[in-house]
């Protein structure tokens, strides 16, 4: 397919997503099935265009002074891809399979309009109803923070110290452009291009033999700051597919007891294969069966309970720009209730002197600082660890890391703009001995 034909396909896909109100991933899959002649390069390029439009949905429409699928695609080419008017016109030449030629109004918008005068939620590309919360947290910086949350994310990897060393894995993944991440001592980063092509990490020997896992650096840091140690009893209460379970296991060096559970046994499905590939032998996966509590035998004995809480996922918008436009206020209310419940459950599992690591991949204060404040008010035997003490886990990088984050007495907030990670909130709550 020509670049112009790919652009036409992206416009059609954006129209279909609008009209059918379906997730972008589903629309892309259906398009692929209906257009089997399109090669993998075409599909990746078209997916890249669609994801970029979703990143810049509001600002692209604003800059074109029109909110149609075509306007959003053209506006994205200007704002996200940096194309000038002539370059856009060259793609829209009206040829076979190409978009219609630019109108005078489109030409004028592409040439003269900017984001000046756009309201913050438009310039920052986020739903208007979240503006109060983002303003309360970031103030005047919310547009810059949100713009970083809308940018493309790299592919981050965590080296599994049960199977490999970072320098060795970095050397063997050099052909993919892997470099060290800024903070995590175990992180490697591969920058991705505009098309949505995965560099094929799953086919690498290091991945197959379990020396490396896909994990955003923010998620790696959340596990690291929990301070899991060899010999401890550690419970991963919201283990899901096990991303943090694997990181905790490596920190425990195979010593101690690691229990992974989740309220939804389907979420746990991939964990077994991942634990086995990573060479973890001290983890027990407890899937829920009916109404029975899979942790009924544990009361006040855990050194560490990790609550990787169900959340709105605002911190991962850069990996899933579709999600932010699909998010509704009701979803936040449900998450807040779930978070309070999981925290209360964690409190019953922790031993005196033990700790809860509360983690969300959201930047919203209601899910983070406010949730911790409410928990501590109801559980006065728990105290949040001061930010500097948390950051100390990063040794020589501790000061720079602390300065990069958004610290509060309740915990540390990481954001794409500040730490170049997904957005994460990390609080470690110590129980009185
Ligand atoms: C952020 S995801 C976990 C991601 C996972 N820890 C990882 O690092 O790959 C949150 C998980 O919490 C689970 N969950 C939701 N409500 C829960 C509850 N009340 N108790 C335990 N788990 C819950 C969800 O099923 C989901 O798998």
Automatic annotation (TrEMBL):
CDD domains: AdoMet_MTases (cd02440). The keyword Transcription regulation does not apply. Signal peptide: none annotated. One of its GO terms (biological process) is methylation. It holds the Pfam family Methyltr_RsmB-F. It is an enzyme of class 2 (transferase). Keywords: Methyltransferase, RNA-binding, S-adenosyl-L-methionine, Transferase. S-adenosyl-L-methionine binds at residues 262, 308. The active site is at residue 361. Residues 145-432 form the SAM-dependent MTase RsmB/NOP-type domain. GO terms for molecular function: methyltransferase activity. Its EC number is 2.1.1.-. Belongs to the class I-like SAM-binding methyltransferase superfamily. RsmB/NOP family. PANTHER family: NOP2 YEAST -RELATED NOL1/NOP2/FMU SUN DOMAIN-CONTAINING, RIBOSOMAL RNA SMALL SUBUNIT METHYLTRANSFERASE B-RELATED. This is RsmB/NOP family class I SAM-dependent RNA methyltransferase. It comes from Rhodopseudomonas telluris. The lineage of its organism: Bacteria, Pseudomonadati, Pseudomonadota, Alphaproteobacteria, Hyphomicrobiales.
